[in-house]
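Quick log. Single chain, no ligands specified.
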Amino acid sequence: MNSQNTWRVVSVSETAKSTTRWVLVTGAARRIGACIARSLHQRGCNVILHYHGSSREATQLAVELNGIRPHSANTVQADLGDTEALEGMASVVSSCTNRLDLLVNNASRFFPTKVGETSRRQWDELMGSNLAGPYFLTQALLPQLSAANGSVVNIIDVHAVRPMRGHAVYSMAKAGLQMMTLALARDLGPAVRVNGVAPGAILWPENDMPGAEQEKILAKTVMGEAGRPEDIASAVVYLGLDATYVTGQVLAVDGGRSLNI
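-> predicted structure:
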């Protein structure tokens, strides 16, 4: 696959490199990813905002965060399905900081696949963004994560353990990401902690899920309502920055939905 990725780096002082916690959030331009980035920034972290196609939103978010604290947000563009591009992302991180305190693997593709009609392109898109990308990006950034005794938080899904009808490949990819979380926690400890957050109904998919389907999902949620992006962000902050004796865990942030799937 030919890479058409570009990278943009905002200059950072050497003092900031050595004294500030640095985090990389994939899929940070919009929705839950943007909320995670803002929450980590509020905790004093400098953030590297990855995006694939949402250039305008990523740039706007970087401007917003740099307006709050100058030189605290950078942007990087890459297709996580292109493993060669991930080495480029690692180079961008190195140009910003020689240590990475937290990697949040949030970026994800989500769409249905019908068994019997699934194309190889659909398979590659879902497996690339949800599983291969997080694995190879973590591998590429391992030197910086190890130098910081850092951590990785993977955004998984409650459907990693209970499949969603009509979404076999997506569910399989998220199941792989959950096992990756456990396996890397064992392989990379004690230098690097690896945990996961499994959201339930937080933001509805952008492919216009029918209202009746939304109501059906909420009826099986103990809390009786959808969650907020901030619920996921607070879990990421806890696991990524505060839970220094927690690794190999997947925290379901689903309002109790997984009790009734």
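Residues 135 and 198 are 17 Å apart (CA to CA).
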